[in-house]
Amino acid sequence: MCSGNFAKCLGITLIPLAIICVLCNILLFFPSGTVAEQSSDIANEVFYFGGILGSGVLMIFPALVFLGLKNNDCCGCCGNESCGKRFAMFSSILFAAAGAIGAGYSVIVSCLAINHGPKCFTQTNTTHASYPFIDGNYLTNHTLWDLCEGPGDIITWHLTLFCILLVTGLVQIGLCAFQVINGLIGTICGDCCGCCGE
């Protein structure tokens, strides 16, 4: 397969993943699907915008670059027809690295959020949400889930959305790593499809 075609496939895959991450981060602003009375009732990690900035906006740029590689005009530079395509493949490595950094940020934020657990109302504090869990202890001890009295099923909401962000971020890192390898091959060997419609 041509390195440009492969990059286009990666770009097509990255766009829906970025949209999923943005939607998950937006949904986290509504604990259990309800409107929070105060912004302090929302988990701090939601405001780090791991899904919106990291796996969302920063992933759109590499995806668009990857999509454009197949149609890149590579007709000549310094008397060498494949020079333009090689430079485009090299630049895709830089964009893939930026995308991997953004997705890595999202993964780190998601891991922190899963470890801290959600902010929720407890028997001792029914007016302001707080963190009732310590170092992810709620992940292995489900009886601790009874400490959270609301809003709704906040623990499942929190875990589901941050786990989606975590897995999606890991997939994005993997796809960007594939593009780094593909870009290196395209830079060193050139694109097998030829240039200028050949």
DSSP summary: helix tally: 4
Shape: elongated
**Rounded average pLDDT:** 86
Percent helix range: 55-70%
* Sheet/helix structural class: mainly alpha
The percentage of residues in β strands lies in under 5%
> Would you list the SSEs in sequence order as H and E?
HHHH
- Low confidence ranges: 75-79
Instruction: Kindly provide the radius of gyration, computed on alpha-carbon positions and rounded to a whole number of angstroms.
Output: 22 Å
Calculate the terminal CA-CA distance, rounded to whole Å: 16 Å
Give me the count of strands. Answer: 0
Major sheet details: none
Describe the structure.
- By secondary structure, this protein is mainly alpha-helical.
- The protein is 59% helix and 0% strand.
- It is built from four helices and no strands.
- The protein has helices at residues 3-28, 50-69, 83-116, 154-189.
- Helix 1 (3-28) packs antiparallel against helix 2 (50-69), helix 1 packs antiparallel against helix 4 (154-189) and helix 3 (83-116) packs antiparallel against helix 4 (154-189).
- The longest helix is centred in the last third of the chain and has 36 residues, at 154-189.
- 39% of the residues are buried.
- The model is unreliable at 75-79 (pLDDT under 50).
Keywords:
single chain; 198 residues; mainly alpha; 4 helices; elongated
Structure at a glance:
Helix content is 59%, strand content 0%. It is mainly α and 198 residues long. About 3% of the residues have low confidence.
